[in-house]
């Protein structure tokens, strides 16, 4: 994805001049170099005209799988999920 179609303000807000895309995850880096994702700036993803909240995907995963942790992240054309068992 190189830009938001017809939305130059949104494109300018989310893309850097050198092509990086701000995904909205709020993170911190500890003294040992480990990166921790602690929250999301915006919990709404619009896919195919549908409003999707990642926590709903995570709740569905957690209710159907025996797991230690789950995570739902927007991918290029769909959500990707990781399940740690």
Supply the helix-strand structural class: alpha+beta
Measure the end-to-end span: 32 Å
Radius of gyration: 15 Å
Largest sheet: 2 strands, antiparallel
DSSP, total strands: 6
Strand content of the residues, in percent? 25-35%
Number of helices: 2
Topology:
Blueprint: H1 8-14, E1 25-29, E2 35-40, E3 45-47, E4 50-52, H2 54-64, E5 69-74, E6 79-84
Antiparallel strand pairs: 1-2, 3-4, 5-6
Describe the structure concisely for a colleague.
The chain has 85 residues and is an alpha+beta fold. 21% of the residues lie in helices and 34% in strands. It folds into two domains: 1-41, Luciferase, Domain 3 (Luciferase, domain 3, Roll); 43-85, no CATH class.
Main attributes of the structure:
alpha+beta; single chain; two-stranded antiparallel sheet; Luciferase, domain 3; two-stranded antiparallel ribbon
Verbal overview:
The protein has 85 residues and is α+β, with helices and mostly antiparallel strands. The chain has two domains: 41 residues, Roll (Luciferase, domain 3); 43 residues, no CATH class. Helices cover 21% and strands 34% of the residues. The chain has two helices and six strands. The chain has a two-stranded antiparallel sheet with strand order 1-2. Strands 3-4 form a two-stranded antiparallel sheet. Strands 5-6 form a two-stranded antiparallel ribbon. It is flat and about 40 Å long. It starts with 7 loop residues before the first helix and ends with a strand.
